[in-house]
Amino acid sequence: MNVEAAKRPSFWNNSKRYYDLKSYWRNLFGGNVYKLPIDAGFTCPNRDGTLGWGGCIYCDGRGSKLRQAGPLPSVTEQIERGKAYYGANRRAAKFIAYFQTFTNTYAPLPRLVSLYEEALRQRDVIGLSVGTRPDCVDTEILDVLDGYGRDRHVWVEYGLQSVHDRTLAFLNRGHDRGAFLDAVARTSGRNIHVCVHIIVGLPGETRADILETARTLARLPIHGIKIHSLLVLRGTRLGDLYEAGEINLMSRREYIDTVCDILEILPPRVVIQRLTADGYKDIFLAPSWAVNKLDVLNGIDAELKRRNSWQGIRAPAREKALDFSSGLGEDET
Ligand code: SF4
User: Fold this and answer.
1) Which of 38, 110, 242, 301 is the most buried (most CB within 10 A)?
2) Beta bridge partner(s), residue 313
């Protein structure tokens, strides 16, 4: 493809080389929107014995800082605290309640409805984002979220990490690629935006493997992506492997180059919600470069500029893409 001939999509209305979440929401709602993280006290079937014990090998299993500090405040109180954090005097007046910790569809439906609707009743909360596993969404919960999505802004965030079954088995994810594809197909066509989480730098994956994950996602009816760098945490099984010298980690340079390759493959309409990961300072082991999030983000910007490249420049041709039109027109190209 002739890189020089590519056109930067004007609908982004930003100065970046990818479609960032802040710009997407400004375009959609005319102002800033903030996600308010909520820990509603859920657990995970990959930890409680339903699917497995111990969870994914990189997961520390502690939950949010709020949970670690003591009894969880109510959803209402967590939203109030989040709003206060962003400041009552800011121009921002809109918020998304982000059910973030563990598997946020893993409870009896009446409890889920009660928690989601408590969030939706709060002033200036315009919608929900619900983080979950692809094997934890049944028709009933999708129907509920679809109903909210008729007049609210609703996302489901599916943890995938990789499309390769051997990697998912190594990570002890407890689901396979097929479960993810099935979840996306069943979510498609509803009033629900789909965001997918992937991890770059997983042990055993080559650059080609990672780009295969990107190409798969580029052909699916998804609306957003979170790209995480692999973080090795003390007390996890991944941490044990690292300390035993049994895994290799990506360098900063490799990470930046690979993320730029992924961005080039993802269609311009896919909103980039995250480009790296940080946090967990008290149990963080490696890679050391991941601590400096801003440096990684600046590195990605610089590499895209050096390439004279943008998100979508190598996206699959539209006619080759799978057509799962969702009816959510605002973020389509
Ligand atoms: S699915 Fe999520 S919460 Fe559950 S063990 Fe894996 S990373 Fe942890």
Assistant:
1) 38
2) none
- Ligand 1 site-directed mutation target among 39, 50, 56, 199, most atoms within 8 Å of CB: 56
The answer to whether residues 160 and 197 touch, using CB atoms and an 8 Å cutoff, is: yes
Span from the CA of 58 to the centroid of ligand 1 (angstroms): 9
- Can you say how many angstroms the Cα of residue 287 is from the centroid of all Cα atoms in its chain? 20
Q: How many CB atoms lie within 10 A of CB 68?
A: 10
Across the chain, which distance is largest between two alpha carbons, in Å?
57
Q: Residue 322: which of 201, 189, 211, 190 has the closest Cα?
A: 189
Measure 140 CA to ligand 1 centroid, in angstroms: 22
Contacts of 287 (CB under 8 A, 6+ apart): 201, 229, 230, 232, 249, 250, 251, 252
Question: What is the 184 CA–ligand 1 centroid distance (Å)?
Answer: 19
> Is the CB of residue 59 below 6 angstroms from any atom belonging to ligand 1?
yes
Atom of ligand 1 nearest to the CA of 173: 6
Q: Which two tokens stand for residue 166?
A: 């051997």
Rg of the Cα atoms in the chain: 19
CA distances from 116 to 18, 32, 109 (A): 31, 22, 10
Question: In this structure, how many other beta carbons lie within 10 angstroms of the beta carbon of residue 69?
Answer: 9
List, in order, residues 6 or more apart from 193 with CB less than 8 Å away: 153, 154, 155, 156, 223, 224, 326, 328, 331
Q: Tens digits of per-residue pLDDT, 186-241?
A: 999 999 999 999 999 999 999 999 999 999 999 999 999 999 999 999 999 999 99
DSSP string, 111-165: HHHHHHHHHHTSTTEEEEEEEE-TTS--HHHHHHHHHHTTTSEEEEEEEEE-S-H
CATH number, domain 3-319, options 3.30.70, 1.10.3100, 3.20.20, 3.60.21:
3.20.20
Distance CA 134, CA 184 (A): 8
Give the Cβ contact number of residue 144 at 10 Å: 17
